[in-house]
TrEMBL record:
Identification of the protein by name: N-acetylmuramic acid 6-phosphate etherase
Record's keyword annotation contains Signal: no
Catalysed conversion reaction: N-acetyl-D-muramate 6-phosphate + H2O = N-acetyl-D-glucosamine 6-phosphate + (R)-lactate
Gene: murQ
Gene3D superfamilies: 1.10.8.1080, Glucose-6-phosphate isomerase like protein, domain 1 (3.40.50.10490)
Catalytic residues as annotated in Swiss-Prot or TrEMBL: 82 (proton donor), 113
Subunit structure: Homodimer.
Natural source organism: Fontibacillus phaseoli
Amino acid sequence: MLDNLITETRNDRTLDLDQLSTISVLELMQEEDAKVSLAIREQLQDIEKVTRCVIESFKRGGRLIYTGAGTSGRMGIMDAVECVPTFGTDPNMVQGVIAGGETAIRLAVEGAEDSLEQGEADLKKLNLSAKDTVLGIAASGRTPYVIGGLQYAARVGASTASLSCNKDAEISKYAKYPIEIITGPEVLTGSTRLKAGTAQKMVLNMISTAAMIGIGKVYSNLMVDVQPTNEKLVIRAKSMIREITGCDLETASDYYERSHHQVKQAVVMLLTGLEYEEAQLKLAESEGFIRRAIQTEKGI
């Protein structure tokens, strides 16, 4: 029953919402949003378990698959899409599946979230395997579409995780690694695109970013696997080469070209004296970690 879900209860602080001035509404929303980060902090251990699970999937050649409906599904798709330019991943490595398909990204598809069978069918299309991790997202924690997906994932041996914003959520029963972020009643009753949506985005940011760090996609705090697909990113790539190696911009630009526009290879080449193919091999041996590749080449 929805009445039992904290995300559906009325917020005592906002009962006179329609009578407040605009600035008062904004202040209330900001105060409520400030609670989200604290709620996430209380669940860091559960978030870590999911992140480690994702890292292991990536190391096995598996994928991270988000599945959800409505706002939850869109959050998964948003995070998945951003992994490609940020970390230079194959588009298949992190994917988002939403109830109602592509239409549901822009428009509400009524009833799509109520089908257990469709949740399974959509994951079947991805040829799910035991190497993969499926993370079901539902603010309410009871969405049948997500439950159906998690049940199927478990049957094929994939790792299962869930993210909800209610305590003792139904979807937690179907996930080996459940996360429950208790964000409390929304400013606007039942509008889980607000605090619950914010919490979901923050947690997905944490999981995907930490997982990418865990497989060597980051050096220091730099996006060294960024895809330089526009002028801004080309400039960023050259700047990273310069910052990491201490060379001048002209040298960075030269090695950017010599490395076929790959920051990691350029850095290893500059700091070890290796040629491109040798740097490629050294990085492969070091599982993509720049620091490890340099240390092993120098015998440190």
